[in-house]
Structures are given as structure tokens and as C-alpha cells.
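During the reporting period the student researcher (J.K.) took over the structure-prediction task from the postdoctoral fellow and processed the backlog of single-chain submissions. One of the processed entries is reproduced below for the supervisory committee.
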Amino acid sequence: MIRPLLLAISLCVAAVAAAAPTPEEVLRAELRATVARVMASGAFADRAPGEVALRLSLPAERYLDLGLLLDPRDPASDGLRVLGATPGGTAQALGVRAGDRLVAVGELNLVGLGVDEDGGSRAVAALQSAVGRMTDGERLSLSIERGGRRIAIDGAVTVRYLPPLRVELGEGDRVAALGTAASASSTAALATSTGTASAGASGEACGRISTFHVAPRSQRLYAARVLAIDGAIPGPADQDTFRLAPGRHVLEVAEAIDAQDLPLSISRRRAATGRRTLEVLVEPGSTQLVAARLLDTLGGRDYWEPVVWKTLSEACR
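J.K. obtained the following C-alpha cells:
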């Protein structure tokens, strides 16, 4: 059975029907319901409840809820058939209804684009790409067919940025042990290269670097990835925080700038731009936040640079 596609840039947490709930109350209810569904699915069927341990980190995310329910396998020979519009979404605010045919977004014609090699609608992909590049307050123009008539509708979109998210499932000591084995080799390599053992092995003071937090886009700062520290691979690909001995360290950093915030010429060649080197001075009891800064000059390879944009005072453990 073909499932409909909910066209939204990311998943929005459903509102809890309560009188002025606090953010904590909403998240607590949603997280409990989500964990219950995960457990009911049998995802941890091979473990006793006391053995469950999971750590999840999500970076800050750009979020635009268009709220269109579409058929992902629709070949769009005569436009994308709208199955519905989600409450509170942009499409509903513009007046899009179930049964409408979406034939164009702005100047982009969505009729007759066919399907790709996997059977997915090229029109759906084109619509997602066009909406994904929009900025907050920009006006979205749609052309739809309804009852044999073509109708033009127009309205502003709202782009939001979701904050970083970190969730731990299970007892604290078991969750903390998740990264121990994975980071043991890199910790040893770092201790050798710096001549100082890390706090985890010897109890000495330590500091950290992290790409978990992302600064506001108004500072032209975006997510980054740490590829190497002092020439050694620092840990799993999804790790975002690294414990280091105090002193100078050399990071190899790659950018993770949102594609919609880059000119098309840069988006096409960004994979070939390589990595950047960043030297940091790690102080005991501090966490240095690393990001990719988008430069005002977007010519050549030098459209971004790695930076430490904030230092937090917090115990290293």
C-alpha cells in the first residue's frame, strides 16, 4: 500500500491539549509516549529494562512546516494531488484543500516531471527543494487546480530553528559507558601526542571541545564536524563532544552549513572544499564550542572558516 507523504522539513512535536502547559510538561508527555512506542516495538526485546542504554544527540535544525499531505508515488502528469493539509501548517493557512492539484510553486512547473529511478515523484522532490531554500517571511506562491479552475494563492512562510537536543535512555552509569570503548583508542592517542593523560584515565584536570551547540544564524555560524584531533580520528562519526587534556590541540574541521544558505555555485562544489585546520587552547574545566562561520566573501574556496565561538565554564567528567 502506498503511504501518503507529509511534506514538512522536519517532524514537529504535537501540541498537548492542556491549559497553558509548560515546555517541560509537553516534552515529558511526548517523550514518555515515544519511549513507550519504542519499547512496544520490541527494539530492546533482547535486554532487560535495567540493561537498556541509549544516547541520542541532534544538532540545531532549520524547520519549515509546509504541512501538505501528498502522494509520493504520484507521477504528477497533471499536478500533485493534495490528500490533505495539516492543522497549523502554511498550506492550511493559504487555503489549500484535499482534492486540489498543485501544478506550480513560484515559477517552477510541477506538471509532467514523472518519477525517478526509485519510483519517487520528481515533482515532490522539486517542491521540497524549492520550499527548503526559503527564508523566514519570504512569500510562497502556489498555483493549484480546483474544480476545473486554476487558482493562484500566496502567503508568507515562517522558518524556525529548533534548538539542539540530547536525550539519554537508561541508567546514568550504563549510558556513560557507551562512549568509553569507542573513545579509548583516540584518548590514548591524544594522551601520547600531548604528553598529558586525560582526566578519564588519571583523574587530572581536563577540558572539552564540542560541536553540539550551534550559535544563532544571525552570527553567520553553522554546524561543524570534527574529523581529527592532533592527527587522530577522535571517535564515532556521530560524536559531538570530545574530552581533551589541557593544552594546545590541532583540529581538522569540516563544515555542515545549511545548503539553502549557500549560493548554488558553492553547493555544487562544497564536497571538494576539503577540511580546515583550527588550533585551540584547551583550559581545565571548560568546554569550547566549535562552529563553521560563513564568510561575507563567498568566492573561491574561502567561503567559511572554523572558529571557537563560545567557551563555557563547566566541570569535565
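The committee noted the following: The CA atoms of residues 48 and 170 lie 11 Å apart.
J.K. will present the remaining backlog at the next meeting.
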